[in-house]
Write a structure and sequence with these properties.
Layout (H helix, E strand, L loop, with lengths): L3 H11 L3 H13 L1 H13 L1 H15 L13 H24 L3 H8 L2 H8 L3 H19 L5 H4 L13 H21 L1
Length: 184
């Protein structure tokens, strides 16, 4: 499991063409603060993101909280919230490292099979991940919905909307898409 920086160093050591590898390292380092801002934006809002995503999933499928539903009783709801938080945490680890291997190895490996064995509805889980993806994009761009947040609105105060932000948004989105693909 290598982060983007370590991968570039290993590649440079193994080959003689270091110009491209050095450029990749320079790019990774120069975007480091923006990457940290993006990770901080997600991590600082993680509990709200998770609870809102699970609430949104339940609003779209009320049977989940009725007797016999997958979020009934409270311990199943707690497990759902815990799992969503774990997924989000590993996505932030991947975003910080610039590499999806930690997400694949520690979170997604066997997740679909585990959820199938437990009877977790995949469509609802995918929907919660989609909601978290939309929230993460908004927080990375420092553009959360004022209409929805009301007095709970939290802005990071460091808008980073430019080409580098678009790259980080695309990268973060790819990690969420990776989770969705692993569950589907």
């Amino acid at each position: 499991m290598l982060d983007a920086f370590s991968r570039a160093v290993v590649s440079a050591d193994a080959s003689t063409s270091t110009v491209a590898d050095i450029s990749a390292l320079r790019n990774f380092v120069s975007n480091g603060n923006r990457r940290l801002d993006a990770v901080n934006a997600i991590a600082s809002n993680a509990s709200c993101m998770v609870s809102d995503a699970v609430a949104g999933m339940i609003c779209e499928n009320q049977s989940l909280i009725q007797a016999g539903g997958n979020c009934y009783p409270n311990r199943r709801m707690a497990a759902c919230l815990r799992d969503a938080e774990i997924v989000l945490r590993y996505i932030t680890y991947a975003l910080l490292a610039g590499d999806a291997s930690v997400l694949d190895d520690r979170c997604l490996n066997g997740l679909k099979e585990t959820y199938a064995a437990l009877g977790v509805p995949v469509a609802s889980t995918v929907r919660a991940v989609q909601i978290m993806k939309a929230q993460a994009v908004a927080h990375i761009q420092d553009n959360p919905s004022e209409a929805m947040a009301g007095n709970r609105l939290r802005k990071m105060g460091t808008p980073v909307v430019d080409d580098r932000c678009a790259t980080l948004v695309a990268e973060a989105s790819s990690y969420f898409d990776r989770v969705i693909a692993a569950l589907s």
